Amino acid sequence: MPMTQRDIREYYEGCWKQKAEQAGGREQLEYSSPVEDAVIYPAYERLIADLDLRAQGGRVLDVGCGSGRWVRFFLDRYRPAFLMGVDYAQASVDMLTRWCADGDVPTEFRQADITAPSLDLGEPFDLINVANVLFHIPEQDLFLQALRNLARLVGPHGRIVTTEYLPRATMRTDWMLVRSRYEFEAAAAQAGLRIAEVRPSAFFSNDPMGIDGPDPFVRGHFQRVRAGMRQILEARLDDTTRLFFTNFLADVERACLAFCNEHVSPTDAPSQKLVVLAPACHCS
Ligand SMILES: C[S@@+](CC[C@H](N)C(=O)[O-])C[C@H]1O[C@@H](n2cnc3c(N)ncnc32)[C@H](O)[C@@H]1O
């Protein structure tokens, strides 16, 4: 049965509750693949530098903060003036208040639904991060409301960075509704946002749903590589061998992305991208 926002919320409440019970410290909150992080973190840092995004000294909001993967990214690498993390799962908010709210940077973790029409998070933000959230909102009215809220929450010179796939055709899996690049752009425009930049940020390490590739034959190749990658990372390995494979797979990933960056338009690259949204320009 394809999930709804309500199913997703229930799932993540349980997921983050279990994570909170198991975690003995901030470093144990890891949730994503180490190969994926080894590639997307430097890509995000480059994006921040190239576009002069205000991670340093700005008001930063992380929507769908989950296990705090991006909260840690911003706190470990930058010094925002203020960092707020919101998630509609209370378990995430409790976990991050416990493990991520004790540093020098003023932080606040708040239970909030990005699709709520009356959402009020105070002053506008300079940088809003929305990683792996929007494809979990299959209901079109809620999706549009989420984009409208983001447009309202971002300052006039601020930017929203969201992780998207932007395939040619919309694809539905049990867990995701991945809107086509055309639908995504039209919805963003309807909410008063424009796509300012697209940067490929993963190749094999993301997208286990196999949504990339024009047909099942191509998608099959991607899925087999991803399955092999998962098998290696989940295998019982000593630390040296694990480190070797993590670095090796990250290098494979970087090589594929470097090739794409030279020869493929960013939107046509497979798998996930960092998509920067800016307030639409109303100048004539
Ligand atoms: C796939 S996880 C991503 C977590 C984190 N951003 C990351 O990239 O690792 C999706 C997160 O978004 C949250 N979420 C989904 N829909 C939401 C909504 N409408 N409002 C706030 N949070 C939402 C879920 O509770 C979950 O924590």
Summarize the structure.
With 284 residues, this protein is α/β, with parallel strands linked by helices.
Taking the alpha carbons of the first and last residues, their distance comes to: 47 Å
How many β strands by DSSP?
A: 9
Kindly report the CATH topology of the domain at 5-32 and 52-203 and 265-279.
Rossmann fold
Cofactors and ligands present?
Answer: S-adenosylmethionine
The major β-sheet equals: 7 strands, mixed
The CATH class designation of the domain at 5-32 and 52-203 and 265-279 is Alpha Beta
User: Shape from CA axes?
Assistant: globular
Strand content: 15-25%
Structural Rg: 18 Å
What order do the helices and strands come in, and which of them pair?
Elements: H1 5-22, H2 34-51, E1 59-63, H3 69-77, E2 82-87, H4 90-99, E3 107-111, E4 125-130, H5 140-153, E5 154-164, E6 171-172, E7 177-178, H6 181-190, E8 193-200, H7 216-234, H8 239-263, E9 273-279
Parallel strand pairs: 1-2, 1-4, 2-3, 4-5
Antiparallel strand pairs: 5-9, 6-7, 8-9
Helix pairs in contact: 1-4, 2-8
